[in-house]
Each structure stands twice: as structure tokens, then as C-alpha cells.
């Protein structure tokens, strides 16, 4: 199965490349081709659908996105193009070819109220432009129909790019104590686990279009950012004291949801993908960083 992936340098795209490299020929049952921003810019939705038609893949994974949550507040047009119009064009092209389309969305489509895990049936109510742009993308992908899967995930970390794990390790090089937000709760999710889930979804949708839909996928257990930081330091053997603070004491341009817990039961039932234990995935990432 030939899978075309939008994105080459992002966390999930790099994790997909790792999966390919780790598996001997044939074991992945898929060949992946990655499209960089230089090859196809997602601000040009027509170029996205043209690339799909021209390359005639068996499935498409969209691992590219405008992920600057704060920057999006003032860069609305760009965020909307990349997160809504581009996936819309990709989904329509895939539906026209009757091939699976897997795209990734976010917990930021929710307003973070309450403490119950969000189910895929709950009504989204984003707090900022980034969440709105991703939600607009979800709606357009659903409207396109076909063999689509939208995989909402949260708190992505890996050995690549910018993420919380790397930020914590960098800060701890010069600090012996940190104040970290303790009232936002969610499931940290390794890019490697998301990559494996995306592949499985693409392969399942190729066999069975009835499994098309919206799914949640996040690491377990749910924790606060402060708890996440403590576990990073514990596993890395770094001595750095973590004091939890409230979101109100750490103002950001875009408001963040307090409750990012996600109900992932439908994903488990439909694809036999369980919530990964992020503490185990974290150990792999720390090892990867150590070897880099
Ligand atoms: N990073 C996180 O904590 C979370 C991410 N997500 C979603 O997961 C998915 C993957 O996220 P990450 O791998 O962390 O993202 P990332 O920020 O590491 O990578 C994004 C990729 O998109 C590409 N890109 C951005 N603008 C582009 C454009 N105009 N044209 C072509 N390519 C462009 C970048 O070059 C990069 O390769 C995204 O859909 C994101 O919205 C969901 C929840 C949390």
C-alpha cells in the first residue's frame, strides 16, 4: 500500500519515518512518501489535491498543520488555509479516488469545561483561532465523505521539533526549580504512537469504508503539565523542583482548555488501538534524545 504523507519535518511525520526505518521491508505493509512544504504548500489547497491526483496513492495521511496556537490568534487567514482549506481539498480529492484519508485534529476544539473525558459525540466549542481552524477542517473533511478518519489527539511529544519534553529538559539545564501549570489536565501522547495509529487507520479504512469517522486518541494516564514535568525529570534523572501554578498565573495569548481528557473507547473498539501508556513512550523518547 502506497501512502502519501503531507508533512516531512513535523513530529508525527518524523515518527512515521522512524516507523518505516525500524521495520524490515514489507513488515509495515506500506510504503510511505513524504511531501515537504517546499513540494506542496498547504496555503495552496489546489496544490494539495493536485498532488494526490498526480501521485495516485492508495491512501493519504495529513501530518502537516499550522500548530502555532498563540501565533494563530493574529495569523487567522494562514491558520484557516492550512488547517481547514487544505484538509478539505485533500479529503475531496481522496473521496473522488475512493482512497482512505487520515487527518489529525486536537483537544483544542473543546472549551475545557468540566472534568469528564470528552467523547467524539460532545459538542466542540474552541477557545481560540487554532481550535476554530482545526474544527473547520474537521467539518470540511466530514462533508467530503468517503473513507476518512479524523484522529483527535493531545499534548504531542517526541524527540523532534518543539515540544514540552524538550522545553523542560532545556530549562532544567539552567534552573533547579520551575513553576508549571497544574490545573490543565490531559493525556500526553507520543508522536510515535500517533504515527502507528494513523497507519492502522489508513490500512483499516482501505479494507472497510464503514469505519470512517471521528476518533479520539491520547496517552494514559491523564495528568497536569506539572505532573508531566515531574515524570520527565524523574525518568531523565534530572533534579529540578516543580511547583504547580494556575493557568491564571501563566497568561498566554490564546486561552488553553483546562480539561483535555479524552474518551478513547470508540477508537479501541473500532480499531483495537488502546490508549498508550505515555510514561513508557516517554522512556523511548528520552533514550532517542540521549542517542542524538
Ligand atoms: N503538537 C501538539 O501538541 C498537538 C498537535 N496536534 C495535531 O497533530 C498534528 C501533528 O502535529 P505535530 O507533528 O506536533 O506538528 P509540527 O508542528 O511538529 O509539524 C507541523 C508540520 O506542518 C508543516 N507545515 C506547516 N505549515 C505548512 C504549510 N503551509 N505547508 C506545508 N506544510 C506546512 C510543518 O513544516 C511541519 O512539518 C497536527 O495536525 C496538529 O494540529 C494535536 C494536538 C496537540
TrEMBL record:
Keywords: NADP, Oxidoreductase. One of its GO terms (molecular function) is dTDP-4-dehydrorhamnose reductase activity. Residues 1-289 form the RmlD-like substrate binding domain. GO terms for biological process: dTDP-rhamnose biosynthetic process. Pathway: Carbohydrate biosynthesis; dTDP-L-rhamnose biosynthesis. Binds 1 Mg(2+) ion per monomer. The keyword Lipid metabolism does not apply. It is an enzyme of class 1 (oxidoreductase). Pfam families: RmlD_sub_bind. It catalyses: dTDP-beta-L-rhamnose + NADP(+) = dTDP-4-dehydro-beta-L-rhamnose + NADPH + H(+). Belongs to the dTDP-4-dehydrorhamnose reductase family. This is dTDP-4-dehydrorhamnose reductase. It comes from Thalassorhabdomicrobium marinisediminis. The lineage of its organism: Bacteria, Pseudomonadati, Pseudomonadota, Alphaproteobacteria, Rhodobacterales. The gene is rfbD.
